[in-house]
Amino acid sequence: MDPLFQQTHKQVHEIQSCMGRLETADKQSVHIVENEIQASIDQIFSRLERLEILSSKEPPNKRQNARLRVDQLKYDVQHLQTALRNFQHRRHAREQQERQREELLSRTFTTNDSDTTIPMDESLQFNSSLQKVHNGMDDLILDGHNILDGLRTQRLTLKGTQKKILDIANMLGLSNTVMRLIEKRAFQDKYFMIASVSS
């Protein structure tokens, strides 16, 4: 487990240094850097799944420490994923503003003829409303991403807590029958909770 953990830990630090390159990258290479970072994050997530399995096979006296180390790595990677998404969101907004500025500057205006009038007030108001809706949707999507990341983190924490409780119960000498009854009750409680939420 230790060699894989060390490789994964090293890769997390490499991603952190790559995140600094994003801010200084030019428009042509920023997409390449983003794709490299995302590919590395995906690779780390698959390694973390393997590390979870390996940590559960550790001897009882080392198991808890191994799981804590894996959980810390997961938290770090999730933080990097959120930082990458936030950077992409800011970059898209900046690029859109630049496009709008260029369109406005490249538009040619002519003097008004008697038959030509431009309803500027309505157009400006409509454009402003569209911009507000667009920004609101971007904020909602970003909030949704952050909420999902938070739920994933909570799920991992609760999963780890459940495993620790079961390990403690095993150490205390509870029988397998009692353990199965506890797991069955937790499984049934989940369905009751889902039924009450849906109703």
UniProtKB/TrEMBL annotation:
It is found in: Endoplasmic reticulum membrane; Golgi apparatus, cis-Golgi network membrane. It comes from the Eukaryota. InterPro entries: GOSR2/Membrin/Bos1 (IPR027027), SNARE (IPR010989), v-SNARE_N_sf (IPR038407). It is a single-pass type IV membrane protein. Its main location: endoplasmic reticulum. It holds the Pfam family V-SNARE_C. GO terms for cellular component: endoplasmic reticulum membrane; Golgi apparatus. Keywords: Acetylation, Coiled coil, Endoplasmic reticulum, Golgi apparatus, Membrane, Protein transport, Transmembrane, Transmembrane helix, Transport. GO terms for biological process: protein transport; vesicle-mediated transport. CDD domains: SNARE_GS27. GO terms for molecular function: SNAP receptor activity. Involved in transport of proteins from the cis/medial-Golgi to the trans-Golgi network. Belongs to the GOSR2 family. This is Golgi SNAP receptor complex member 2. It comes from Homo sapiens. The lineage of its organism: Eukaryota, Metazoa, Chordata, Craniata, Vertebrata.
